[in-house]
Write a structure and sequence with these properties.
The chain has 378 residues and is α/β, with parallel strands linked by helices. 44% of the residues lie in helices and 16% in strands. The chain has helices at residues 5-20, 28-31, 65-81, 94-106, 119-131, 156-174, 191-209, 226-239, 252-264, 279-287, 298-313, 351-354, 360-363, 369-374; strands spanning 39-40, 53-57, 85-89, 111-114, 135-139, 150-154, 180-185, 214-220, 246-249, 293-295, 325-328, 333-339, 342-344. Bound molecules: beta-D-glucopyranose. Residues 62-63, 65, 140-141, 186, 190, 192, 224, 251, 275-276 line the site of beta-D-glucopyranose.
């Protein structure tokens, strides 16, 4: 941002006034008007005033969900509730995320929503917040040995079970006998990746042990990096002389890397799984390159997190019925909101559209227009 000395002075004065006045709501939008962040402000209608909230997103590499879905849906949820919010994305850098958290606290945030980049850095952010009287909600990813007040996510073991069952159903359809399966897992530093694997291995392991399928590869993708996933999967193909009949890919981005590698080797379509119901994942499902994805209604996740953040910032109890479980962070049990994921195949591909999550204009373009039309999406 290029500011003239004069406008810099204006900003400095405005910031000082902002810091003096207790009405933090009035400071949100002018203070945080940078391209990487966004904010909205007004005061809450009911009783005590909701205080500033900061949202810490992880990256733009591991999934399009964070910027395309979580950011706008969280922005909306807080705006509707009249709560000033600042949203930042750490672009995969742990020290950037720590600095962003620090900055938010300095700017008056009383609640942070954190999607950690790993448990160690997440726990450090939470310890610092706690020492400054700031509440934290683990958003989507649980911080192991952390100190968050709440955790809001999906039943992530169930996500994995849907992926395992989805892969098996597609393999049965493809008629492969004793299929060779490759597992491409999420980031080893993401607790969710561990839970997804726990879920799909609970479906696949019995098949391996009974000799009904063979596991020919099983590797984690650091930071869910799609480029690394491509290299890893190419090596898997190489090692197995291309004889892979199905791939458990832990999200749509990793699934896309698999599909790209198969295409560049001119290999035939095989069952490939995914997660997140991204526009690209749905396009792949429509044309048969991908066999399933898992739809997680991010709107519900954003709404639940915003309701909890508002309660925390007003020092009120969580809205009745919202907290529905506990999650073990290996040191303690964290009160949790765990939502239900849904399996999506070509048969019910309309679900994320009907739910308002996807727009036909994001998916039904170019070569995918015809497939959308025959699936009844318009
Ligand atoms: C989220 C997934 C996402 C992945 C990569 C996980 O923690 O639950 O929805 O695809 O991270 O960002």
């Amino acid at each position: 941002m290029n500011l003239s000395p004069k406008s810099r002075r204006v900003v400095a004065v405005a910031t000082a006034l902002c810091a003096l006045s207790f009405g933090v709501a009035a400071c949100g939008s002018s203070n945080d008007n940078k391209s990487s962040s966004s904010s909205s402000s007004s005061s809450s209608s009911s009783g005590a005033k909701a205080q500033k909230v900061g949202v810490l997103l992880p990256d733009t590499q591991s999934s399009v969900r964070w910027e395309s879905f979580d950011r706008p849906l969280l922005q909306d949820a807080f705006k509707k509730a009249g709560v000033p919010v600042t949203i930042e994305n750490a672009q995969g850098d742990k020290s950037t995320q720590q600095q962003q958290a620090e900055q938010m606290i300095t700017n008056g945030a009383k609640v942070l929503l954190l999607v950690n980049l790993d448990s160690g850095s997440g726990a450090a952010i939470e310890a610092n917040a706690k020492s400054r009287g700031v509440k934290v909600i683990d958003y989507d990813r649980l911080t192991l040995k952390g100190s968050a007040d709440y955790y809001v996510s999906f039943d992530n073991v169930q996500v994995g079970k849907l992926q395992g069952a989805g892969l098996v159903a597609c393999l049965n359809k493809s008629g492969a006998s004793k299929p060779a399966i490759a597992e491409l897992n999420g980031s080893p530093t993401d607790n969710n990746a561990t839970l997804f694997k726990q879920g799909y291995d609970s479906v696949l392991k019995p098949l391996y042990s009974a000799g009904k399928a063979t596991k020919v590869a099983d590797q984690s993708v650091p930071d869910w990096d799609n480029q690394k996933a491509l290299t890893i999967f190419e090596q898997m193909l190489q090692k197995n002389s291309n004889k892979i009949d199905g791939v458990l890919a832990a999200n749509d981005g990793l699934g896309n890397s698999v599909i790209s590698a198969l295409k560049s080797r001119k290999l035939k379509q095989i069952p490939v799984t995914g997660q997140d119901a991204t526009p690209q994942g749905i396009q792949h499902i429509l044309v048969g390159d991908q066999c399933m994805t898992v739809y997680k209604a991010v709107k519900k996740e954003a709404d639940a997190a915003s309701q909890l953040a508002i309660a925390l910032s007003k020092k009120q109890a969580a809205p009745a019925g919202l907290v529905n479980g506990q999650s073990d962070d290996t040191a303690r049990k964290v009160p949790s909101v765990l939502l239900k994921p849904q399996l999506i195949t070509k048969a019910n591909v309309k679900v994320p559209f009907d739910d308002g999550f996807l727009k036909p204009s994001e998916v039904c373009v170019g070569q995918y227009a015809a497939a959308c039309k025959s699936a009844g999406i318009s």
